Amino acid sequence: MPKYIFVTGGVVSSLGKGITAASIGVLLKSRGLRIVHQKFDPYLNVDPGTMNPYQHGEVYVTDDGAETDLDLGHYERFTGVTTNKNCNYTAGRIYDAIIKKERRGDYLGGTVQVVPHVTTEICNSIRSVASNEVDVVICEIGGTVGDIESLPFLEALRQFRLQEGRNNVLFIHVTLIPYLKMAGEIKTKPTQHSVGKLREIGIMPDMLICRTEKHIDKDARKKISLFCNVDEEAVIEAFDAPHSIYEVPLDFAAQDIDQVIIDILGLRAGRRNLKAWRDYVDRVINAEKTVNIAIVGKYSELLDAYKSIHESLNHAGAFHSAKVKILSVSAEEIERNGADKILKDADGILVPGGFGGRGVEGKILAVKYARENKVPYFGICYGMHMAVIEFARNVLKLECADTTENNGETKYPVIHLMEEQKRIMNLGGTMRLGAFPCTLKKGTVARKAYGKDQISERHRHRYEYNNDYREQFEKAGLVVCGESPDGMLVEMVEIENHPWFVGVQFHPEFKSRPVDPHPLFRDFVGASLKQTGKK
Ligand code: GLN
């Protein structure tokens, strides 16, 4: 049976627990251990699919169609291990399962309580990712120790360790060691309090990962070890990675974190091999060229809203030994001031996924600018819809062509609701979600990028390309380069006679990896690099 690592967080949120958990996964995997990641989110939404990016950041989609927390993206990118719907549970999902059982009569006669029913459901959910194919489950608990919402989860972990045995469960607590400029020293007290909070619940951390801006010297390490009851070698220092988040595993490796974990859990492991990883980080650090990519979206100020796209661009940049400078452009700003000035420095333009009317006309103007000025364009999901609408309006001259998502009355519904969506009333979990196969057309830019005829990509949408206009579009040069194997759904379009103009109905950003960049991002950034010479 597998061993379990639980990662909790203390003092403040946003300490990078996800990247910490992902990095530990990289190191254990490099030692030949088979790992799987899981995340618990203590909020009451059943999944993050209905939350807006201000609340939640990006919604990451798995192959099996779950809408999940963006940390699952980190897990997949770091470890290359594909996640699934059991890899992310919210408190809402746990309660939903319990309430459904209660209504069915499964608890007949009993009072349904947080302890033991909710905690048992949590323990069962942890075991849902365990199998004899897995050596280590790495499970991150969202939120911060001390939050009301986290309590049932932490209580469940305490019980879980009792059930699985002490040697099979390891607790890692990610904490902050602030530096007080006025005092000229780092402070360990918040960490002591946070560990104290964990101990109140009955959890004794085995390892502390200390986010800090200053080195933790020997004395401070001793003090943390003594006050928090953690071995000195298990007090790990975590700096902000200067160039890239992919440096974190290397930083941890330098502190032998994997060996400490392996020793505590009594795991049998091979030697560490991080060569490909080091090469990637070297390429990032030594990149000499720079390419400017504009992301034209609704959430220009929110870093997390397009997390996987940012990462995919970075992977592609490293492939070309180039640094990708992301220009976050507000689509509404383009509506106000036009595209020319705002996009003049862009070597490539990307319109990401999105919903609803705000900023749509600005996105369409960005497409027009890219098409007319022959600047590489990459439209993802809503970005493909925008490309189709722009082409319809300005090339086919179908005045006011639109998506029925924003204009149900349009004379030219070039993007419309998918047939299967017409009967759906609930918003949660009801889009076309997850991986679907796609057949690529010979001789296209898309086919060349992938180097094969059949691909599989992840989707999250309700609206699609309207086949009634297909002939007109294709005649005028907006070519269908990828479609569902039955030919019913258009999944990819591209423009002939343009350096690089591709729109995709799916989300390729979910499948890019640092050492294996996604072919479309790779070629989009490649084409954009050529553009840098033209300015
Ligand atoms: N709003 C569009 C749809 O539902 C696009 C969704 C997306 O970009 N993920 O089809």
What does this structure look like?
- With about 525 residues, this protein is α/β, with parallel strands linked by helices.
- Helix content is about 35%, strand content about 20%.
- It contains 19 helices and 23 strands.
- The strands form five sheets. It has a nine-stranded mixed β-sheet with strand order 13-12-14-15-23-22-21-18-19, with helices on both faces. It has a seven-stranded parallel β-sheet with strand order 5-2-6-1-7-10-11, with helices on both faces. Strands 16-17-20 form a three-stranded mixed β-sheet, with helices on one face.
- β22 and β23 form a beta hairpin.
- α4 packs across α5 and α5 crosses α6.
- The longest helix is centred in the first third of the chain and has 14 residues.
- It is globular.
- The chain starts with a strand and ends with a helix.
- The site of glutamine (GLN) has 10 residues, from β19.
- Glutamine binds next to β19.
- Percent helix, as a range, is 25-40%
Question: What Rg do the Cα atoms give?
Answer: 25 Å
Main sheet: which strands, in order across? 13-12-14-15-23-22-21-18-19
Low-confidence stretches: none
Bound molecules: glutamine
Mean of pLDDT = 94
Instruction: Give the termini distance in whole angstroms.
Output: 59 Å
| DSSP E strands, number | 23
Specify the structural class.
alpha/beta
| 3D shape | globular
Q: Sheet with the most strands?
A: 9 strands, mixed
Beta fraction: 15-25%
The oligomeric state is single chain
Tally of helical segments: 19
